[in-house]
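User: Okay, second chain of the day. Same drill as before: sequence in, structure tokens out.
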Amino acid sequence: MASLKTQIEKAITGQRALIYLMCTEEIRILPILEKLASEKSFRFETWSCVKGLSSKENSESTKDPAEAIKKIMADGKRGIYAFQDVSEFMYKPEVKRALREFNSSGESGTGQFIVIISPELNLPENLREEIHLIDVPPPDDEEISAEFSRIRAMYAGSKIPDGFHEEIMIALKGLSIGGIDSILHRIFKADSTDREVIFNEIFDEKEIIIRKTGYLEFTPPRALMTDVGGLGNLKEWLVKREKVFTREAIAAGISPPKGLLVMGISGCGKSLAIKAISSLWKMPLFRLDMNLVFSGIYGSPEATFHKALKTVGAVAPVILWIDEIENALGLEEEGKLSISSHIFSSFLTWMQEKPPLIFIAATANKIHALPAEIIRKGRFDQVFFVDLPDEPERREIFTIYIRQNGGAIENFDLKMLAIMTNGWNGAEIAQVVSAARTDAHYENRQFTQGDIAMNINSTVPLSTTMESQIKNIRSWALSRATPASKNARILRY
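Assistant: Same drill. Structure tokens below.
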């Protein structure tokens, strides 16, 4: 995509007298317009309803936008005139008429251009064809690099390793120039050499942006790959792609991973594995709450979904987590597949055209309800099936949760616990360990093997209560997915 300056310049070259920039960053736009005016030997002025035109002789008498436009036309001076927040006055009859007359004169090559800067699109019907609209993207690589160099020069003695600089600039993508300035000043003033401290500053800023939407949720990078028991194939796949999800890899002609679909039996670690990607790849993870999208609280589901994808694109590089994707794109109702067609088609198109540094991490429980178009090759890089953990994986899961609950591993017979929990999922194992600790805490002592065994004996696992459903899930996944575990359990059923 052409730079913002180039887009504006093309509009001016094409004699588009009225240019509308959808953008909240006046501080970023005004210097670009001033530079363009200087290059073309044009006058440059700004307008606001508080000060009027910026030229001293016109200020008081031109606070009304229609009067300001008439004044510009009467002066006849070639120039670029930046109107700030005039969109609030666009529906006044005299303002609409003034803009139309200005546009008519501009088409004759007067060299006068009004650039409207507004965060919202307010366009009367009779002006839609006459105004050249530019939806201003976030600062590009060149702008971010220039801003980084400018602020870095203020902190000559900085101890921040040079090796972090490129990563910092990548992480800043999607933020406004004002946000970038603020973060960089905080980072350089803190002068920390701790990578986590530096990047948390950036992630915190992106979290604030995302939180404003209401339907996107920031997930802190607290889960580690070492917190995930089993799933060896899935872990290996993610580790291999850590260094490919970078701008350097793209520059070298390597395609970054597009996304991952993890489906399977409930409680077997799908969500935990997705959360761990954020820590492994050191990228922010945002979860899209499709229940809120469909609720109608934020407008029509289609428009809300579109805004969500646009917001995610603005803060890339990022990991987008869509939990229970089958509820967003396909639901089984009375044996028939029902698809929200508008959202479904727009999502498929977006997956093909999205920026390269957005990784889609999707999870699904009711895998038979997924549309075939989603799971075919090319949509996601890989589709993994998560089955119930086998005995070695259950031992690993017990080890993780016993340690997390403060137990000493040498005091537990992990092999016996794994045998006792044949057919259990990871969430059930986590629950019995937690319950054992609670029981022991009530008696003011450390929990033991006996506490866990007692809770195991009083629990009925999901594999017993939903035996037929689990068999159906395994049968469905046999030819459609790659086993997430190293031992390829699917092939044995």
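Confidence is low (pLDDT under 50) at residues 331-339, 489-493.

User: Thanks, on to the next one.
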